[in-house]
Amino acid sequence: SDGSIRLHQMTSEYPLLQWNGSTKGQPIIALQWALTRPAVFFALDASSNIYIWDLLENDLLPVAKQTIPSEKVVTMTLLGEPEKANGLLGIVLAKESGQIDIQYVKKKWALP
Question: What is one GO cellular-component annotation here (predicted)?
Answer without folding.
Answer: cilium
